[in-house]
């Protein structure tokens, strides 16, 4: 499974987006170190703020399946530039991804931007801040 194949899985996941409000479909595909792929799409709600992004759906599916070691994430939407994950997803990613984890962002024209977790969310709040005395 390489980054191109992972992006194809994100595009496939995007087709399942439940987006009656924004009509903005997003897909994500998360590759574990053990070689499994978890797909996610955004899922909206009439109470708008409880909607969930594609990235978090993929991550929560994997975590709830007992997976904790991740290799790469791909995210895709029909945007002009490769789709930038929102701040809430960046925070959730930083909980589970190493600083060097690769995040491939893309669009339907196959423009691609790959960045590391550290670049995506520098100076992030994490568990070591909680434990400091
Ligand atoms: O990276 C992103 C950006 C936005 N969305 C979703 C949230 C909402 O359902 C819709 C419009 O913001 O797109 C994602 O799933 N991922
Ligand atoms: Zn998000």
TrEMBL record:
Keyword Oxidoreductase (UniProt): no
Q: Which GO terms describe its cellular component?
A: cytosol
Group of enzyme by EC: hydrolase
- GO MF: cytidine deaminase activity; identical protein binding; zinc ion binding
Residue ranges of every copy of the CMP/dCMP-type deaminase domain listed in the record: 1-128
The active site of this protein is located at 55
* Gene Ontology annotations of biological process type: nucleobase-containing small molecule metabolic process; pyrimidine-containing compound metabolic process
Q: Name one Pfam family in it.
A: dCMP_cyt_deam_1
Q: Where does Zn(2+) bind?
A: 53, 86, 89
InterPro entries, from UniProt? APOBEC/CMP_deaminase_Zn-bd, CMP_dCMP_dom, Cyt/Deoxycyt_deaminase, Cyt_deam_tetra, Cytidine_deaminase-like
On whether Translocase is a keyword of this UniProt record, the answer is: no
Gene3D superfamilies listed in its UniProt record: Cytidine Deaminase, domain 2
Q: Which cofactor is recorded for it?
A: Zn(2+)
**EC number(s)?**
3.5.4.5
Domain of life, per lineage: Bacteria
- State the SUPFAM superfamilies in the record: Cytidine deaminase-like
Q: Report residues binding substrate.
A: 42-48
Reactions catalysed according to its record: 2'-deoxycytidine + H2O + H(+) = 2'-deoxyuridine + NH4(+); cytidine + H2O + H(+) = uridine + NH4(+)
Entry-linked NCBIfam families: cyt_deam_tetra, PRK05578.1
The record's comment on protein family reads: Belongs to the cytidine and deoxycytidylate deaminase family.
Name of the protein in its database record: Cytidine deaminase
